[in-house]
Each structure stands twice: as C-alpha cells, then as structure tokens.
Amino acid sequence: MSEARRVRATRWGLVLAFLALIEIIPRLGLVNPIALVPLSEMVWQLWLLLKDGTLADHILRTLTSIVAAGALAVVTGLPLGVALWRLETTRRILQPYLTTYYAIPIFAFYPLFIAIFGLGSMPVIIIAWAWAVVAIVLQTVIGLDAVPPVLVKVGRSLRLSSWRMFTRIYFPAATPHIFTGFKLAASYTVIGVIASEFIQAEKGVGFFVGFSYNNFAIQNMYAAILLILVFAVALNSGLLALERKLYGRQG
C-alpha cells in the first residue's frame, strides 16, 4: 500500500471509530441521554426534519448568507490584497494588525451590527464577511510575494507592461496561495454564519440549533448539528478535490 493510501485509510479509520463511539457510548449508558443521543437517532431525526420541510427555510437562509458573505469576501479581499501588496508602506503599517486580526472578538460587535442593520441576514453576512475577508487578503499578499524571481525576470526580458506582468506572471503564479485563502475563507464564512445565527437570528440552521437547545429538543439539536457537519465536510472535500485537479496537490 502506498503512503498516500495508507494516510487516507488511517483518516477514514479514525472517522469511523469516532462515529462508532458516538453510537455506542449513549447506548451503553455511559453518558446522560439528554447530553448525547446515538448517531443513528441523529440521522433518523435529520431525515424526518428534511422530509417534513421543517429545516427547508432555515437551510435556505443559511446557504444564502454563506454564499453572500463568501462572494463579498472574494470580491473585496482580492483587490485589497493586491493593493496591499503594491503599497509597501501601507502593508508595513497594517501587517501587525492583520496578523493578529483573528484574536479580535468580532462577535462582540454583533449588537452594533444589529442596531445598524436590524434583525435579519445582513448582520450575519457582515460578521461572516469580516471573518473571511482577511484570510483572502493575507494569502493574496503572500502569494504575490512568493512569485519566483526567475518568472519576473522572464516577464521583464519580454518587456511586458505592468498590467501584462500582473495578469501573465504574478497572478497565475500566486493562484495556489490565493486558493488557500479561498479555502480558509470558506471555513470562516461557515463558522461566522452558523455562530451568528446561533447568537441572535430569527432563522437559519444555527438559529434552529439554539432554539432546539433552549427548548430541550435534543434530537432536533443534534440532527441540525449533524447537518452542519455533513455540509462542512462536503464543502471542504469539494475544495480539496478542486485544488488537486487544478494544482495536482496531494492531500
């Protein structure tokens, strides 16, 4: 067995072992059934919630917020990253703040966003965007800085204009790093949306988790959590597969 296959087999083995523990531990009475329900019951309850349409509006709201926040992060993060790369002095000034950005408790500003935008999806989108955009900015700067000098010399020897140097040399060479920023931003967007909905929202999968918890609907709560996990794993797997297809990376 090759090293890559052995790594994948180990990963799947750990996942299956974890899922088995979630099924077995509650059934053996090792934990309070209110605290944890068996995996099979989570799956069945999720199926019922999807079948009767209970989660439909919540899923639509969450997906809409994720797509909106992610798209906003991309269309703002890329140009900001390029601008920061070009403006050396500005980058040196902002670098310490950007590198420590995720230590800032962004959710502390959620009441402010509610006061400005009101209840609804907009505060959720703003929080998720704020979490995601910096990852794209930083990875764009890192990628453009990491362009091999030999490629730059080739472009200059061909007397390419500044625009052609960027579009033909810098940006293509930086795309692996930028794609890493997209992956990070996707994760931060999901976290930002779900957590914001959990804290204060009137609709969404995160809201449904919090509502179920507050009303002791434990099976509904775990069913929604399972849905979030499945979506997160599917999103990450899809991005990894796309990355391997584009850049031939192994993961």
Describe, in plain words, how this protein is organized in 3D.
With 251 residues, the protein is mostly helical. The chain folds into two domains: 1-36; 43-247, Orthogonal Bundle (MetI-like fold), CATH 1.10.3720.10. Helices cover 80% and strands 0% of the residues. It contains ten helices and no strands. It has helices at residues 3-27, 39-51, 56-86, 88-99, 110-117, 121-145, 149-157, 162-199, 205-214, 218-247. Helix 3 packs parallel to helix 6. The longest helix has 38 residues, at 162-199. It is found in: Cell membrane. Pfam families: BPD_transp_1.
List the helices and strands and how they pair.
Elements: H1 3-27, H2 39-51, H3 56-86, H4 88-99, H5 110-117, H6 121-145, H7 149-157, H8 162-199, H9 205-214, H10 218-247
Fraction in beta strands: under 5%
Order of helices and strands: HHHHHHHHHH
Total DSSP E strands: 0
- What is the helical fraction, as a range of percent? over 70%
Organism: Solirubrobacter phytolaccae
InterPro entries: MetI-like, MetI-like_sf
Keywords: Cell membrane, Membrane, Transmembrane, Transmembrane helix, Transport
Family: Belongs to the binding-protein-dependent transport system permease family.
Spell out the key features of this protein:
251 residues; mainly alpha; MetI-like fold; 2 domains; MetI-like_sf; cell membrane; transmembrane
Brief rundown of the structure:
This protein has 251 residues and is mainly alpha-helical.
